[in-house]
């Protein structure tokens, strides 16, 4: 299970800058938006390279398992 | 990294208890203590020698029914008094009074205080809400420019 991390900086005027990591794909943006909803209004969102990586999927062959 | 978001905090509906806590933390740090609002207003506040400025709390919205329109949060020391209250539109305002200060000095102090209160408000809301989402504070610090840094960590389900 990978760790998900949020690094947050709150400026003296209250402006919040949060870096979300450890979450690939749109789930990252969802968490960021959730954070924005909790405390105020989103000013900007900048995706990074990891954002465009696919979420991991693991296929399970049910047919094979049933034969064993 | 996955993404960077920048957010302007809004002191939100029904957040009066969090705001009270944030204001108490900030006022305590600058040497002002909470006083009984009603008792104080009738005694030493509005003297002719006092200078007074009123400021809207930036990015505040209707604070809901958790605070009555006549309810105030008052902090004071020997020369300064800061009053948080709700204006007729339901928004929060800050009134700063003091003797021996110019209006510009009090306004600057009030704006600084307002920013710090919003900063504390954001800190308390973030920690509270993220812990409810199983993200724990693993590190926090305040840098030389008074920025608060928090690192939250959790494990994906």
TrEMBL record, chain A:
Annotated Pfam families: DUF2997
UniProt name for this protein: Formylmethanofuran:tetrahydromethanopterin formyltransferase
